[in-house]
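Async update (no meeting this week)

Hi team, since we skipped the sync, here's where things stand on the single-chain job. The sequence we agreed to prioritize is pasted below, unchanged from the tracker. I ran it this morning and attached the output directly underneath so nobody has to dig for it. Comments welcome in thread, and please keep replies under the output.
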Amino acid sequence: MNKRKQQLEYDNGKSKPINGSATTKGTYIKIIIRNLFIGILLMLVLNTIRFTSKQPKVEILSSDHVDSYTTLSDIELAHRLAKATTFKTISFGESQEFDQYEPEFLKFHEFLRVTFPKVHQYLKLNIIANYSLVYHWNGLDESLKPILLAGHIDVVPTLFLDKWTHPPFSGKVDETYIWGRGTMDDKGSVMAILESVEDLLRQDFKPQRSIYLAFGHDEELGGHNGAFNINKYFNSNKIGPFEYILDEGLPILLPPVFPGLSKPIASVGITEKGAIDIRLSVTIGGGHSSMPRRESAIGVLAKAVSKLENNPPSPKLRETRLLFDFVGRECSLPYRFVFSNLWLFEPIISRVLSSKPTLDALQRTTTALTIFNAGNKANVIPMEANATINFRVVPGDTSNDIIEHVNRVINDDRVKISKISNVIEPAPVSSTTSKAFNLLQSTILQEFPDVVVAPTIMIANTDTRHYWNLTENIFRFCPMVLENNDLQRLHGIDERLTIKNYKQLVDFYYHLLKNGERYL
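Output:
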């Protein structure tokens, strides 16, 4: 009996250490998991605490400051811009329909000569390709790199005239707005640049570095005659490299724009998307509609296009991270927590961006079916179907990547790429740590102290596509203050700019030129 009792105790004694070991091991795992969780949480919190503003401190201009634009009143400036919009400088050369507007460019040249006498007295003017304009304001120190302010004097055609509040070329100014085609794109910035230079000349300002102004005449058609030849002029005359180039671009958007942010965003394009048009073709035997085959050219091509629409290229967030980095620091605490820890939350953010086309365009190459042609009679099955797809190529992708993507996704030998056209690679990315970006950011905040300045991707194309070889610092920005629903006015109906905002445009370029003396 005692022996059996000892055996039981022995067995129990052996089993206790075993159970105790398992319990101890499980406890250790729980402790490790708990400590790991606490460590990650502390790191997330620490990242949030360190996620402080990237907006520089600048000297804010008082509302009654007199050191900026002083020559004309707000309403006088407005009427000068309004007059500029009365010239129908509609892009010509692509279609004979618009060739009638060619003389309007020469009339506009004369208007500028009369309106800005000091600019034309003291700056050297070169007319490029008959219609584009390059002004040179000689600086005092030839060892300094020059700067280039760019824009374009052509505008897009106007449609649906009966829907315009005021005729697009009437030069209408009311109590609040300047109405007309070109007020936003891009005569507003061209006129504001010239107004600021004219005023600086009146004040006997002499820049240290040379200043160039370049205004193309066919930007809306790709700049292949204007900006392209302006670049040739700079190269042949050994002008450059430039300290920076500032061209038309993104505006200041009023909230709501960004989750967790109650301030307007001044988005500066530090790169821009490329583009490629790909035409797809399918040829299959046709015939009478009473005896249709199982598959038709239209059906096969429709399936191929549907595959492309449902399987877009993967996101490329490299440049979009910069936007998050600058804007996220100004957001409310919950969003700051998220944007300061992209290593953890980026997949979730990407999914949210994907749900909105306007935001999705910032992170991936977009796919847009723009033309679909097939058939011409209701009872005849066409042998051939064609579709053209416009891809806007995000930095991180190339045109070759997109061609490979198309073939891989469609995966059907019957669908052929029959034409590739209008290929533009994504633009180089300009640094946000350069003196030039700091100058631009500081000047924006000086004139618009309540905004958040942030780098981003320009999803459209500008004349800067022809200027990549002239500088490492290319920025695309125009300080128009717009609401989201104003964006449809660009190339659309009722293009307009507020009188107050146009004065701010003039002020901005004035201070940009003056600040360049101390920030660069």
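Quick observations from my side:
The first helix runs from residue 2 to 50.
The longest strand covers residues 274-283.
Reply here if anything looks off.
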